[in-house]
Design goal:
By secondary structure, this protein is mainly α. The protein has 3 domains: about 40-145 and about 185-300, MFS general substrate transporter like domains (Growth Hormone, Chain: A, Up-down Bundle), CATH 1.20.1250; about 370-470 and about 570-690, MFS general substrate transporter like domains (Growth Hormone, Chain: A, Up-down Bundle); about 475-565, no CATH class. Helices cover about 60% and strands about 5% of the residues. It has 25 helices and 7 strands. The longest helix is centred in the N-terminal third of the chain and has 64 residues, at about 1-65.
Length: about 725
């Protein structure tokens, strides 16, 4: 009986196998075509998104490279430049919630394309003041500009100056005052950067979500990793572009460069900062074009057509339905009632009902999730450590070009070149090394906390050595040394005047430095007591300078245009600084990936996206916005000589106290870093207390977000999370 039944079954299966094969062949053929269309579409989107990431990283890093150029061009202090730099984060925060929520319901590629257009418009707006505020004017003695009028730098009597020259000079000053009095052109730079932040908002949340929705599940992590890798290349080209533009004079193409009497080594030099923004804006436009031709939806891969796949979103819905079945049923019932009666009620009732449902959702889901998240001690401690650490890193990187220029006497061009070609690759290699160590040694959560802590500890320890790698102050008569070679009095404004220039009609507000043959810099030819000059432009030589002759080490009384170079030890110190800076950048970056993995593993799976959103929001609000401002305020306190605007008022700083700048800049960075290390130690202590010796990896279960041991499958992050972890907010700040 059994044999006959088996034979019947075999006969039945043989009879039915042919039609099944035909249908399967057709389905396989259509599936292969659909798979090819899907893969082709997602790869086009991947290439376009990678180019957008490159464009936004390039423009953001280029802004960092032009901080000192903007400060000098608009004659503003460092604190105000910090406000301009933080405006990008403000613009991003203005619409990030709206874009993240409503963007997923609309045409995501076109929203990204519109964001690129807004970002390019903001970039162009930053450059616009260059074309409306007139030519750049720097302080120079008239004889170095106009060879037709011979003037004595030391004007003992104004009658020796031709009346026509005085009238023309005064007329130009008055005209400039009228123009400057009605405009503060730096506001356009701030608004442009704000607009850049608004345009950049949809790129990351919508772009990454689009890839995750339509890519094959096993390829999604690889695609996201490729996008983040391209994002690292952007800052390299951004700083290199800043280096190139800093070599060019600000008004190139509008003035005769042969008549420019300052060089890139002069503190009044301003490069063609606006040119890079035009290039970056054009790149942003090109990056946004493909998104206008991409479809709203792509064919889903065969394995992901069912919405019940093991995505985080599906798990979240499943778990919430299990935990809060009654609440979800009631909310769904209310939604059905609203839909069913939408035709019978007026729009005001619909709006009211929508607001009520939204409030009900917040009370039923948002607040408990927030309470659960903030009840997790590991998450809270790591969040505090990250906020404080990013304050130190963002402030340090924002003013790193200024520090190198002022401390080591380097030009803006060389500074940007060094940062782009040396520091940023070290950061990228550090990020990769951190992920490689995690994978190679199977590091658990406690191990990730140790690695992150060790990275921060040794990184800031290396940073401590930079205190010994500074240059002394330049010898500037009346500011850092007296006119006789001794240390000056505390009142720098009064110390600018001495017996050697008492017979001259000089202004303490001028900054037109000259270098005496004694190696001392003088604030202006007048304050140096120079009575005669010869030559024009950069080749001007001053003679009979009474203050140069009275200096104890002087053998001559002549001087040339421009400040004197710093001491001979500075080039060597700058080389040491570069070596330590690169090692520090690498060391700090190694801990980025383990820290991010720690953040992912110590929270419940269904709270992961919410926790990352709160983390990013806190970093932007509490670190990205305030850090450049208070770092700038602290740096302003080290200024020895402020410039003066044409119509009066304080302008940009012309000379910093090198020692004070070093202690303030590095000291503030180290203090914040040390505080963050204490929080990291607390994180490790809590983790060790919660974990058992047999299993140091943690699972997100238990009350109030405490992490306990669970199955090994839940303890280790999957490959998708590991590759995504190569990116964290403001990663380019780890320089």
């Amino acid at each position: 009986m059994e044999v006959s039944s088996k034979e019947n079954t075999h006969f039945f299966s043989n009879n039915t196998i042919l039609p099944v094969d035909r249908s399967s062949f057709k389905s396989e053929s259509s599936a292969s075509k659909e798979k090819q269309a899907c893969c082709g579409g997602i790869k086009i989107f991947l290439g376009a998104l990678s180019f957008v990431y490159f464009a936004k990283a390039l423009s953001g890093s280029y802004l960092k490279s032009t901080i000192t150029q903007i400060e000098r061009r608009f004659d503003i202090p460092s604190s105000l430049v910090g406000v301009i730099d933080g405006s990008f984060e403000i613009g991003n925060l203005l619409i990030i919630i709206l874009v993240s929520y409503f963007g997923a319901k609309l045409h995501r590629p076109r929203i990204i394309g519109a964001g690129c257009l807004i970002m390019s418009a903001g970039t162009f707006l930053i450059a616009m003041p260059q074309f409306f505020m007139g030519r750049y004017r720097y302080e120079r003695f008239p004889s170095t500009i106009n060879s037709t009028v011979s003037l004595s730098p030391c004007l003992q009597d104004k009658s020796q100056t031709p009346l026509s020259a005085l009238e023309k000079s005064q007329a130009k000053i008055n005209a400039g005052c009228e123009r400057e009095a009605g405009s503060s052109m730096w506001i356009y730079v701030l608004l442009g950067n704000l607009l850049r932040g608004i345009g950049e908002t949809p790129i990351q949340p919508l772009g990454i979500a689009y890839i995750d929705d339509y890519a094959v599940e096993e390829n999604a992590a690889l695609y996201i990793g490729c996008v983040q890798t391209v994002a690292i290349i952007g800052p390299i080209f951004g700083f290199l572009l800043g280096s190139l533009c800093a070599k060019l004079y600000v008004d190139i193409g509008f003035v005769d460069l042969g008549k420019v009497t300052i060089s890139p080594k002069d503190v009044q030099w301003v490069g063609a900062w606006w040119l890079g923004y035009l290039i970056a804006g054009l790149i942003s436009i090109l990056a946004g074009i493909p998104f206008w031709f991409l479809p709203r939806h792509l064919p889903r891969p065969e394995g992901r057509k069912d919405s019940s796949t093991s995505s985080e979103h599906s798990r979240f819905i499943t778990e919430e339905n299990k935990d809060q079945g009654t609440s979800s049923w009631q909310q769904a019932k209310l939604a059905e009632m609203a839909k069913g009666k939408s035709l019978e009620i007026n729009p005001a009732v619909i709006v009211s009902l929508a607001c009520f449902l939204f409030l009900l959702f917040c009370l039923a889901d948002f607040l408990p999730s927030l309470k659960n998240l903030f009840g997790n001690p590991v998450y809270i401690l790591y969040l505090c450590a990250s906020i404080i650490q990013f304050n130190s890193l963002i402030g340090m990187v924002t003013y790193k070009p200024k520090y190198i220029e002022q401390q080591y006497g380097q030009t803006s061009s060389k500074t940007n070149f060094v940062i782009g070609l040396i520091n940023i690759p070290a950061v990228a290699f550090g990020i990769f090394s951190g992920g490689l160590i995690m994978k190679r040694f199977g590091v658990g959560v406690v191990g990730a906390a140790k690695l992150s802590l060790g990275s921060s500890f040794f990184g800031y320890l290396l940073l401590l050595s930079l205190f010994a790698m500074g240059c002394g102050n330049s010898e500037v008569a009346g500011l850092t040394v007296s006119y006789h070679g001794a240390k000056p009095v505390s009142d720098h404004e009064q110390a600018l005047f001495s017996e050697c220039n008492s017979g001259c009609s000089c202004s303490r507000n001028d900054w037109d430095p000259i270098c005496g043959e004694n190696g001392v810099t003088y604030v202006s030819p007048c304050l140096a007591g120079c009575r005669a000059s010869n030559g024009t432009g950069k080749n001007t030589v001053f003679f009979n300078c009474s203050c140069v002759g009275t200096f104890e080490s002087s053998q001559s009384s002549s001087a040339v245009v421009g400040p004197c170079q710093k001491g001979n030890e500075c080039p060597k110190m700058f080389l040491y600084f570069l070596v330590i800076s690169v090692i520090t950048s690498y060391t700090l970056s190694v801990g980025g990936t383990p820290g991010y993995i720690l953040l992912l593993r110590c929270i419940k799976p269904h709270l992961k996206s919410f926790a990352l959103g709160i983390y990013t929001l806190a970093i932007r609000v509490l670190a990205g916005i305030p850090a450049p401002v208070y770092f700038g305020v602290a740096i302003d306190t080290t200024c020895l000589k402020w410039g003066s605007k044409r119509c009066g008022g304080r302008g940009a700083c012309r000379l910093y106290d090198s020692s004070a700048l070093r202690y303030v800049y590095l000291g503030l960075t180290l203090v914040l870093g040390t505080v963050s290390i204490f929080f990291s130690v607390a994180v490790l202590w809590v983790l060790r207390k919660k974990s058992s010796p047999q299993d140091e990896t943690l699972s997100a279960n238990g009350e109030r977000g405490t992490c306990g041991t669970k199955s090994r499958k839940d303890n280790f992050v999957n490959s998708d999370q590991l590759i995504q972890s190569t990116y964290w907010p403001e990663k380019e700040t780890r320089l």
